[in-house]
UniProtKB/TrEMBL annotation:
SUPFAM superfamilies: Periplasmic binding protein-like II, Winged helix' DNA-binding domain. This is LysR family transcriptional regulator. It comes from the Bacteria. The keyword DNA-binding applies. Keywords: DNA-binding, Transcription, Transcription regulation. InterPro entries: LysR-type_TF_proteobact-type, LysR_HTH_N, LysR_subst-bd, WH-like_DNA-bd_sf, WH_DNA-bd_sf. One of its GO terms (molecular function) is DNA-binding transcription factor activity. Belongs to the LysR transcriptional regulatory family. Residues 12-66 form the HTH lysR-type domain. It comes from Vibrio ponticus. The keyword DNA-binding applies.
């Protein structure tokens, strides 16, 4: 038994009918199909006989679709549109992908604000950003074009042929001011609830250990196991966190976040490295872009440090 026993033998007749029904003209249909008008008329007549249904009402200067003709046209139009969309996808060249992996905080605060810049820089590529939890991950089978690693074990990457040092972190406490004129001293910030990016409170401990006289007991501690979440909580006014100031430059410049005047800005055990699994022109260019970006951001941080009298270590 045939799979579709009621379909006409010639599918070409269905295409001819769809053209006539869409244009409501034998003449225009013939021109679009590049055949004679009589050939179009014969195809329609043959289709009507085969399916035993009148599809078109022929008038003196125009044509109309019958009720069955309209129903058939709607089905054909919908299916031809779907088929056209599918075939268009097949004919379009597959867009190349530029895959970047990084810690969530870096993806959220550095890459996402620059998606437009990345798209303009690499117009022939689909930008794919894959966020990961801060720290080290297995690079033995890494498939990204470039991985941005935030690590507290820099010895794993220093000197590695596929790894390039990007930058240190510049750590200091941040908080959200209650209004544009309010400013807290270091002592007042240290009395606020402390927000931590790791459960071992490493960032706060590292920053405080170099200034024993600043070791004031906070009102409470909250750990998020994510630097981006700790920053977000600080932005929401839930307390102070020690963070890499380069990650919050826009908020510091606009006054949405503050670091106390005269605060020491420390380096941390964490460092950034770029890992290129496979050498390629696009990955090398992306690395150059990142290096230039960090140079510009460090200059912006130095301007802020001078303005607020922060002590850059």
């Amino acid at each position: 038994m045939k799979a579709y026993p009621n379909l006409p033998f010639s599918h070409n007749s269905l295409k001819v009918f769809e053209t006539v029904a869409r244009l409501l003209s034998f003449t225009q249909a013939a021109q679009e199909l590049n055949v004679t008008q009589s050939a179009v008329s014969r195809q329609i007549k043959s289709l009507e006989l085969e399916i035993n249904a009148a599809l078109i009402i022929r008038k003196h200067r125009s044509i109309e679709l019958t009720e069955k003709g309209m129903a058939l046209f709607q089905v054909l139009r919908n299916n031809y549109l779907e088929l056209q969309t599918l075939l268009e996808k097949w004919t379009q060249p597959e867009k190349k992908r530029l895959v970047i992996k990084s810690a969530i905080s870096f993806a959220t605060r550095i890459l996402i604000p620059r998606v437009r810049e990345l798209n303009e820089r690499y117009p022939d590529y689909e930008i794919v950003i894959i966020p990961l939890i801060e720290g080290d991950w297995d690079l033995s089978a890494e498939q990204s074009d470039l991985a941005i690693i935030n690590t507290r074990q820099p010895e794993l990457y220093r000197g590695h042929p596929k790894a390039t040092f990007l930058r240190d972190e510049y750590m200091a406490p941040i908080y959200t001011p209650s209004d544009e004129h309010s400013e807290k001293s270091i002592k007042q910030v240290l009395e606020m609830p402390r927000l931590h990016a790791t459960d071992d409170h490493l960032d706060w401990r590292t920053w405080l250990n170099q200034e024993e006289d600043l070791a004031i007991k906070p009102s409470r501690d909250t750990s998020f196991i994510s630097l981006d979440l700790a920053i977000s909580a600080s932005l929401a006014g839930h307390g102070a966190t020690v963070t890499d100031l380069l990650l919050v430059l826009p908020e510091l410049e606009r006054g949405f976040l503050r670091t106390p005047r005269n605060a020491p800005v420390r380096s941390s055990p964490w460092q950034y490295f770029a890992y290129l699994p496979q050498k390629s022109d696009i990955a090398s260019d992306l690395l150059v872009w990142l290096q230039s970006l960090f140079e510009q951001e460090l200059q912006r941080l130095e301007v802020l440090a001078e303005k607020h009298q922060w002590k850059l270590a």
